[in-house]
């Protein structure tokens, strides 16, 4: 009887198992939309440090379209759940928390009414970091005069005497 009770309780708990990398890759390959985004706004549900998950609403500008119906320059929105794994966590890869100004490649699925959702769970974003700032070009280096730039050479070999004697 005790075994039946334990089995019933375990069956009622949500199943959180690790996912093999090839399944994340398959989910990415099957994503309806693959886009490079610059995150313009992130809103999260209230969390006072004790919660294990937060709802995240993201607004982003499409910078490049790999595939899908999105258009460059379009503003897109989507929602996902960010989970903070406990110490010793064994389960699916947690979805990272995006930040404003970050650039990422996103793997998304478009629902029947056009809403976007994550396609590859915790592997739905390929982090790119913040949008790179304009890097000023290094000033051109001046070429050193030939006399200064040429390394000291070995002494010239002795030439044969002019009269042909050894």
For this entry, give a set of tags:
166 residues; alpha+beta; OB fold (Dihydrolipoamide Acetyltransferase, E2P); 6-stranded antiparallel β-sheet; 6 strands
Task: Tell me what the structure shows.
By secondary structure, the protein is an alpha+beta fold. It has a domain at 17-130: OB fold (Dihydrolipoamide Acetyltransferase, E2P) (Beta Barrel), CATH 2.40.50. The protein has helices spanning 2-12, 21-29, 146-149; strands at residues 33-44, 53-67, 75-83, 102-110, 116-118, 125-130. Strands 1, 2, 3, 4, 5 and 6 form a six-stranded antiparallel sheet that branches. The model is unreliable at 4-16 and 132-140 (pLDDT under 50).
Mean pLDDT: 76
**How many whole angstroms does the radius of gyration measure?**
30 Å
CATH class call of the domain at 17-130: Mainly Beta
Strand content: 25-35%
Q: What is the strand and helix layout of this fold?
A:
Blueprint: H1 2-12, H2 21-29, E1 33-44, E2 53-67, E3 75-83, E4 102-110, E5 116-118, E6 125-130, H3 146-149
Summarize the structure.
The chain is an alpha+beta fold and 166 residues long. It is built from 3 helices and 6 strands; from the N terminus they run ααββββββα. It has helices at 2-12, 21-29, 146-149, and strands at residues 33-44, 53-67, 75-83, 102-110, 116-118, 125-130.
């Amino acid at each position: 009887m005790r075994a039946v009770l334990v089995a019933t309780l375990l069956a009622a708990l949500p199943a959180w198992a690790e996912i093999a990398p090839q399944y994340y890759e398959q989910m990415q390959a099957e994503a309806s939309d693959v886009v490079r985004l610059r995150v313009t706004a992130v809103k999260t549900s209230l969390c006072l440090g004790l919660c294990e998950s937060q709802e995240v609403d993201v607004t982003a500008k499409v910078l490049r379209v790999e595939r899908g119906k999105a258009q460059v320059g379009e503003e897109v929105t989507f929602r996902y759940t960010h989970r903070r794994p406990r110490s010793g966590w064994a389960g699916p890869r947690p979805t990272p928390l995006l930040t404003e100004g970050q650039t990422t490649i996103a793997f998304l699925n478009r629902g029947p009414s056009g809403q976007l959702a994550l396609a590859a769970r915790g592997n739905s974003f390929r982090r790119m970091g913040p949008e790179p700032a304009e890097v000023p070009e290094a000033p051109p280096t001046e070429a050193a005069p030939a006399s200064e730039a040429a390394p000291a050479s070995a002494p010239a070999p002795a030439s044969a005497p002019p009269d042909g004697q050894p």
